[in-house]
Amino acid sequence: MPASLSVPSSSSSSSSMLRDLPVLLVAVVWGSSFLAVQRVAEPGTVVAMLVLRFGLVLPLLGAVAWPALRRLTRAEWLGGVGLGLGLSGIFLLETYGAVQTSATNAGLIISLAMVLTPLGESALRRTPPPRAFLAAAGLAVLGVALLTGDGGLRPPTLGDLLILGAALVRSAYVLATARVRAVRATDTLAITWVQLATATSVFAVVALSAGPAPWTLARSYGPGQWAWLLHLSLFCTLFAFFVQTWAVRATSPSRVSLLLGTEPLWAAVFGITIAGNRMGPLALLGGALVLVATEWGRRTAPAPDRAPAPAAGAEPAPASVPA
């Protein structure tokens, strides 16, 4: 047997790492989002803040994506709108939950999406996930529990239940987007814009009867709050969703979700360095377990389905955009 067939290619390994790095960066910026949301929103202003957060990125992304948007077919528009409705549900649940529960519980509960997604993917394939992957996922959940709870959790509140709902919808969204045939050959920027525009429209309609008007909230913000809002808009929204749209095409929903499972670890890092939170011994152990389990699971995640090649001249399309 030729050596090239028996020895793993170093270039293939390097390519895999390069595909994973942007997703890991998304986990980092999302880890900062819990702190950012708490700085710019409270239960009565969640919807108005979401209108501002998404509305700020739409003109910028739309200007870049305009040529591709003009080429979208009716099926592609409908597919993007459908995904955008799911995206709006994730953000409403997650943001309302984040401002009504502790960062400890929010970080643990939302991380359950990393287990729910591969389990859902295996159910859709009707094949059991690798045992090694299940073990890695279990170890990651244990690590997140230690990291975010430092050994214990209080009884669930309304905020906890909202975050759990966001985790469920997030997992379903990842799997659904990976299987929406209408957008498989759609330009990444264009389909991202359609989804964000749809979500923003939902928030704008809800804002008519929920809390202050977005412009009223904007006038009340000081320089610090505007800085946090821009961070949420440019990094936690625009950068994150563009990377995920690309990443699930290049790898698999399970792999992406597992990397995003490090989000609570980065939330703890930002909490310590910016908010002045302290981590006990159990939390430090949990952080180490999350890192080990993520790398283990990344190597053992189920292989992605191979979709038929797009027609000649078509750009590869996104498969999924977990929020």
If you had to describe this structure to a student in words, what would you say it looks like?
With 323 residues, this protein is mainly α. The chain has helices at residues 3-6, 10-40, 46-55, 58-70, 74-98, 103-110, 113-125, 131-149, 158-177, 188-207, 214-220, 223-250, 253-260, 263-273, 281-300.
Key features?
73% helix, 15 helices, disordered C terminus, mainly alpha, 323 residues
The major beta sheet can be summarized as:
none
Please indicate the count of domains.
Answer: 1
Q: How large is the count of helical segments?
A: 15
What Rg is obtained from the alpha carbons, in whole angstroms? 20 Å
How many angstroms separate the termini?
Answer: 45 Å
Strand percent estimate: under 5%
Overall helicity: over 70%
- Return residue spans where pLDDT drops below 50 for at least 5 consecutive residues: 1-8, 306-323
User: What shape does the CA trace take?
Assistant: globular
Order of helices and strands: HHHHHHHHHHHHHHH
Structural class: mainly alpha
Tally of strands: 0
Q: What is the arithmetic mean of pLDDT?
A: 80
Quick synopsis:
This protein has 323 residues and is mostly helical. The chain has helices at 3-6, 10-40, 46-55, 58-70, 74-98, 103-110, 113-125, 131-149, 158-177, 188-207, 214-220, 223-250, 253-260, 263-273, 281-300.
